[in-house]
Amino acid sequence: MSQNIYDNQGFFDAYAQLPRSVHGLDGAPEWPALKAMLPPLNGRAVVDLGCGYGWFCRAARELGAESVLGIDLSIKMLAEARATTRDEAIEYQQGDLDGLTLPSNSVDLAYSSLALHYLADLRPLFATLYQALKPGGSLVFSTEHPIFTCSPNQGWLVDEAGKRSWAINSYQAEGERSSDWLAKGVIKYHRTLGTTVNALLQAGFELCELNEWGPSAEQIAANPALAEEAERPMLLLVAAQKPLV
To answer: Do 230 and 221 form a contact (C-beta atoms < 8 A)?
Structure first.
């Protein structure tokens, strides 16, 4: 089972102060790039994996989706989503993406924003989504970029005797990473870019677009704090498709 850090009151309260929590998709600088990767949603069935406050669920309806299912592990996040949604075509469910089940051929778009790095293994989820998507259906997601998740300790370490050794948390060393982000002991998982892409291909998906997102000059000018994100990609945006046949 995934770590349910979002129901930690201290974490939840701190997360609520982030720009993307306060302003929704308008507070997420990568949203324009992610939105451009979406297929047409008119009349489509959508599932949002790790829906949080439900920002994308409501946006998908505005973009024409016929129905939206938002799934999240956090009771607190779902309570906020339900309190801010007035749309009978949007349904919210508590669920763990690690062990998720969905009806076959029931979804036109599976979407996820900044949730997949909480999963130890993406292969079971990708297999589930592949069978849940209708032929020609799309998977669009964002996750923390492996350059960001690998750990600040990557590279050669030198001990007091001058002996060099490769850091355990190097880019190639995949697995669990613990960090103090908004709360102590937040567990995320590092995997290389190749591991993520190969998991998609092995599930049967066709890769449509891969974006190692960084802010534009205009975004940095409007928000200088984003300059740090231009030094190395923090986010990975991916669009894939289930073949028509």
So the answer is: no
Q: Report the residue count for the chain.
A: 245
Residue 20 confidence (pLDDT):
76
Residues 89, 45: Cα–Cα separation, whole Å: 10
**How far is the C-alpha of 83 from the C-alpha of 137, rounded, in Å?**
30
**Rounded Cα gap, residues 198 and 216, in angstroms:** 29
Pairing of strands 90-94, 67-72: parallel
Residue type for position 204: G
Q: Are 240 and 166 in contact (CB under 8 A)?
A: no
The DSSP string of 65-134 is -SEEEEEES-HHHHHHHHHT---TTEEEEE--STT----TT-EEEEEEES-GGG-S-SHHHHHHHHHHEE
* Region label for 151, one of left (φ > 0), alpha (ψ between -120 and 50) or beta (otherwise): left
Amino acid at 80: E
What is the rounded average pLDDT for all residues in the chain? 87
Strand partners, 188: 177
pLDDT of residue 160: 62
Which tops the pLDDT comparison, 149 or 68? Answer: 68
